[in-house]
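Project standup — Tuesday

K.O.: blocked on the structure for the chain from last sprint. Re-posting the sequence here as requested.
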Amino acid sequence: MADRVVVVGGGLAGLAAAAALAEHADVRVIERLPAPGGTWEFDHPAVKTLVAECLQRGVTLECGDTALRWVDRRLLVIGPGRREWVAAGHLVFAGGTRPATPAELPLLGARTAGVFVATVAHHLLTGRVDLGAHVALCGGGYWAELVSSHLPSGTHVTFIGDGPAPRPSAGVSLSTLRGHTPVEVTGHDRVETLVTDAGGRRATLRCDAVVLAGDIRPLRNVDGAIREAPDVTYVQLAAATVSAPEVVEHARKSVSALTTNEENP
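H.V.: unblocked you, prediction finished:
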């Protein structure tokens, strides 16, 4: 295995991978937030345990910096007062997850206003921008919960998907449409209806906003490391709802081949 491994992402997956690899290589973790933890946050018990394990094994944690580009086994890292090319033999990527975009689903129809990926919807809601009065929320899990918790009072949400429905904030009403998936939007200047499908049976839901929170995919936003390669390993578990032990186990299994190859040349 490479003498130095750089891990992008200091959430549970990145910390678990770093701790596992630290017995075999010099490991540096690059995290864009000012503290490790990612969406699990810095004070989560599992995060605290892994941070302690990483520090005990000599892992270098570098928070507040952003990884931009991987080329010729060097990672470009940018931060306040910093622009550095970090040399490493291998890149491990644990940069988080995101919901699928309309094109990836695919969601047919005109690209009208009012159709949001949950990451964008959450950003707008935290800025006190109302999405609409009748929101079609497609998919459950972390992003659906996050969006629901920020919707203003008076909003009606129709949850489209399976699994537990999100818990809306006070004053928000909720209905569910189980077993359906979004297939098409209609509207002129703004979305007016969402067409869903359930085993060939279609339904039309009137709405003025559609939020896509399902079909979770790993973020792959470092130029030069968009997909798996001999010098790149992705360790992020992509699922709507996951537990901390599941994330940690998946990350450790994902990097186990690197250490196995070293021990069995």
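K.O.: great, moving the ticket to review. The mean pLDDT is 94. The domain at 4-96+219-263 is CATH 3.50.50.60 (FAD/NAD(P)-binding domain).
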